[in-house]
Amino acid sequence: MSRIVMKFGGTSVADLDRIRNVAARVKREVDAGHQVAVVVSAMSGATNQLVKWCQDLSPLHDAREYDTVVATGEQVTIGLTAIALQAIGVEARSWQGWQVPIITDNAHGKARVDRIEGDELIRRMEQGQVPVVAGFQGLEPTRNRVTTLGRGGSDLSAVALAAALKADRCDIYTDVDGIYTTDPRIVPRAKKLERISYEEMLELASVGAKVLQTRSVELAMKARVRVQVLSSFEDKPGSLVVDEDEIMEKPIVSGIAYSRDEAKVTLRRVPDRPGVAARVFGPLSAANVNVDMIVQNIGADGGTDMTFTVGRSDLPRCTDILEKAKAELGFEALIADPDVAKISVVGIGMRTHAGVASTMFKTLADKGINIQVISTSEIKVSVLVAADYTELAVRALHTAYGLDAA
Amino acid sequence: MSRIVMKFGGTSVADLDRIRNVAARVKREVDAGHQVAVVVSAMSGATNQLVKWCQDLSPLHDAREYDTVVATGEQVTIGLTAIALQAIGVEARSWQGWQVPIITDNAHGKARVDRIEGDELIRRMEQGQVPVVAGFQGLEPTRNRVTTLGRGGSDLSAVALAAALKADRCDIYTDVDGIYTTDPRIVPRAKKLERISYEEMLELASVGAKVLQTRSVELAMKARVRVQVLSSFEDKPGSLVVDEDEIMEKPIVSGIAYSRDEAKVTLRRVPDRPGVAARVFGPLSAANVNVDMIVQNIGADGGTDMTFTVGRSDLPRCTDILEKAKAELGFEALIADPDVAKISVVGIGMRTHAGVASTMFKTLADKGINIQVISTSEIKVSVLVAADYTELAVRALHTAYGLDAA
């Protein structure tokens, strides 16, 4: 007997037939004697529609109201999934974030889970009931307003729930059957990875390999939750996200990732004074705008150009904050470019091998792709390029690092 | 300075432009110095889709899960309406039923409001904030699960909120511009009523004149809430629902109503024993199935045919309960007919005038319409006919009682 959290993404609950399929899969685990908790996302497309409505009404909308609106997607699917489970004889009950409760901070739209009060769920699981928990949702500390965890937050909900319920495994059912060396829609010869380390997965997720959401991998690594990624449509083994120690042969490059959810911001001729970076990035951080890659070119005349990237959805808020502070910061102009993509090569073997970055730069140069920004970490090299070159860059790098399937 | 509750139905919030229009109307009242609370329904069509999903998954679904699913419709519109209000400079905040809270009983799917804890809302209204409250929603007594008030429950929410907030008026904005002598889609020469008594409105609402939901009129009568029905698309006076004393000339017949949401159930050859009616209707009542018209024909041989009507959506549950009790009740067969309509003539003047019923029967007979069941009250005569005859019957009666506009 194991305790399992089963998480189903938007495409797995996209219509009633798929929800019935989810119920059948859950029943199989229940019939095998396991204690099961289910986490579901919104029907695919539903959240996009809700987000669009909020943005169309007001680009700078109140994030608390945004959360009220978008949280409904998961509320629909938990109810429907509970009904589908009951219809095939599985005792089930839906739980919204505020009902569990899943307590978060009050960073609406991208809240962090503080803790999950899971005792009642454990009690019911031990009595044979299947809790169907809304992914993505939380409750802020005053316990009156709904929060959401940001896009892809249902993975985080599932991993956090697995940790809180002391589950033996967290199975993430999705529309792909595992984690690949890159996006198979771009490179048909991409290979499925049997195992991948938390750290590699983290780098891949953070640069847009959207199989698992970044923070869910961070949390899995911290709470040592064993995560399995597998298809909700086929019966075949998925990919395991495990500790690095469990991986025998460490490839230099495990995968190529890309992200089109980036936007580039350049501040022209910022006065080159101590503390100017803090004055630029302080207010952005206070407004929960995450800044990623940063480069600064010091000019000859004491002015400097500062370039950085933010999440594309944060761009209006970011430019609004900086334009308001233009006089104080003293820059000459703000140039925003949403048409960029971040391409990354990732591998734990990189730590002990040189030459990975130069191979990347040479490969891109050979294809005539201009590199706008570079950033590196221990196990990753990322570059920012014009969005139009995304597929070309990914394909060239996949081949250059010998990742193409035979 | 007045305190006003403004309620907007599904067609008034059907898309973003209409939500902006709602916000503009609310702003006008706020700018005039009034304290305003807003109640909104789900976007038109949204609730139907949600209900259909529940029914398609399981006709006998768990009403608690149904409530979880269908409550999302209003949750979407409160968030969007709050955003639209903020976008034009009106301070606003959305409130779900559980957040206010609006405490109901635990009759999921058709809960009754027990009380509204409105102190926080009053405090905020006095500070100039507009609460945007989800119609239709409540919270059952354990305060963990969402309830809904049944179809059309947003009117009830608005009237209950008006009572709890001690509002001077409850304005119900809808897609019609008032209350008519009958449905103008069926009779183009129907006339708008300037005033109508609570009791007449109650009879009209309960037989399907869907301008106001039955229980909302009952509550308005009990709490003496002045209700105005008006169009959210045009600027013209609506109809006032007031105390009978405020109506000078009392017409014999004020209106003709119809309802197609009925289903007829006949139990053939029920043993004619004392207590059999209690044994039939007890379990239906326990399951929250409302029984309306009842007739019983005593046969010569000790058996009896019992016919009654229930809401059409309750029909599967009703037949399920009775078929299971068939042996105990001893009837020979259950015949269900969903293709019926209830036609009613209503008027407070009926109390002091005879001949209303015979005019009705003669008019229908002249058109060849067979009457299946008859029921009467002090100010109403209702008949059940085959659904196909609905329009014909309504038109003939509207003319017969002299209600056609000149």
UniProtKB/TrEMBL annotation, chains A, B:
Domain ACT: 265-348
Pathway(s) the chain acts in: Amino-acid biosynthesis; L-lysine biosynthesis via DAP pathway; (S)-tetrahydrodipicolinate from L-aspartate: step 1/4; Amino-acid biosynthesis; L-threonine biosynthesis; L-threonine from L-aspartate: step 1/5; Amino-acid biosynthesis; L-methionine biosynthesis via de novo pathway; L-homoserine from L-aspartate: step 1/3
Enzyme class name: transferase
UniProt entry keywords in alphabetical sequence: Amino-acid biosynthesis, ATP-binding, Kinase, Lysine biosynthesis, Nucleotide-binding, Transferase
Keyword Signal: no
Matches recorded under PROSITE patterns: ACT, ASPARTOKINASE
E.C. number: 2.7.2.4
GO molecular function, one term: aspartate kinase activity
Catalytic activity reported: L-aspartate + ATP = 4-phospho-L-aspartate + ADP
Family: Belongs to the aspartokinase family.
Protein name: Aspartokinase
Origin species: Sediminicoccus rosea
Lineage of origin: Bacteria, Pseudomonadati, Pseudomonadota, Alphaproteobacteria, Acetobacterales
